[in-house]
Write a structure and sequence with these properties.
two-stranded antiparallel sheet, about 260 residues, 6-stranded antiparallel beta sheet, alpha+beta, 8 helices, single chain
Length: about 260
């Protein structure tokens, strides 16, 4: 074999070694994400309410993973703000996410009543001309005045969501004299209209917080927030409440029960 052939052969072996190393790192990263998903479910489910997570060696044995994979999984949860490593203690849960169901039509205070008191800071409230998409969703002529409400909602004093709400003025005008700081709008709508709420159309997506939303929610600029768009109807089918709700993604988790129907 010539010297040039030997050089090429050595280079080829080096490239194969690098490729194999990168493949192992990718595989470990994949396994770390899988383990992080499992641990996140346990953390959010309250599996470690009073103490640290099991030691890395215990987690490695329980989940048949390497110590490095466990460390990477815990790093992912730490980056999410769910856990923190304390010297002499171990990895502990430092954040709590509150469950928000998607299979029942309820106000936020009703949804989270078992977790504390929801308070509302009414930041803006008054009649505004309905933007065309809002008028269309509420079945109103374009430019019709609607009641616009912006509320910062807190649970246990911590910012949880920023709610932007549009309500037809013939219904919403009566809300101007109501206690919106301590009462869900859903409950007030049923009382003022004399009708129960019927159903809602919802969509949920992750968006990056704009500067205003981030400041109000005390979240980092550009942080991911859960955007829930909800159009709520009375029992007779009339749409009466269009909401754009930005939830802090590190403080809320959405869940529901789905039934398969073909």
């Amino acid at each position: 074999m010539s010297s040039s052939d030997r050089v090429r052969d050595h280079a080829g072996q080096g490239a194969s070694t690098v490729a194999a190393h990168r493949a192992r790192r990718r595989l470990r990263a994949d396994r770390a994400r899988q383990l992080a998903d499992l641990l996140r479910h346990q953390v959010l489910g309250g599996a470690f309410p009073t103490g640290p997570l099991p030691h890395e060696s215990v987690l490695a044995t329980d989940y048949r993973a390497s110590r490095n994979t466990v460390r990477e999984a815990l790093d992912l949860l730490r980056a999410e703000g769910l856990v923190e490593r304390l010297p002499g203690v171990g990895t502990v849960v430092v954040a709590q996410k509150y469950p928000h169901g998607l299979d029942r039509l309820m106000g936020l205070a009703e949804t989270l009543r078992e977790h504390g008191r929801v308070t509302n800071e009414v930041r803006t409230m008054g009649p505004v001309p309905a933007p065309a998409p809002v008028a269309d969703r509420l079945h109103l002529p374009s430019g019709t005045d609607v009641l616009y409400i912006e509320r910062l909602r807190r649970l246990g004093g911590l910012p949880l969501s920023l709610d932007l709400t549009y309500i037809p003025l013939d219904v919403g005008a009566a809300l101007l004299g109501e206690d919106l700081e301590n009462t869900d709008i859903f409950r007030l709508l049923e009382t003022l209209t004399g009708r129960p709420l019927g159903h809602a159309e919802i969509s949920l997506e992750a968006v990056n917080a704009d500067a205003h939303s981030a400041a109000v929610l005390q979240a980092p600029h550009g942080a991911a927030v859960l955007m829930l768009e909800r159009l709520t109807h009375l029992s007779d089918g009339r749409p009466v409440d269009l909401e754009f709700i930005r939830f802090r993604g590190d403080r809320i988790t959405m869940s529901g029960m789905l039934h398969r129907s073909l």
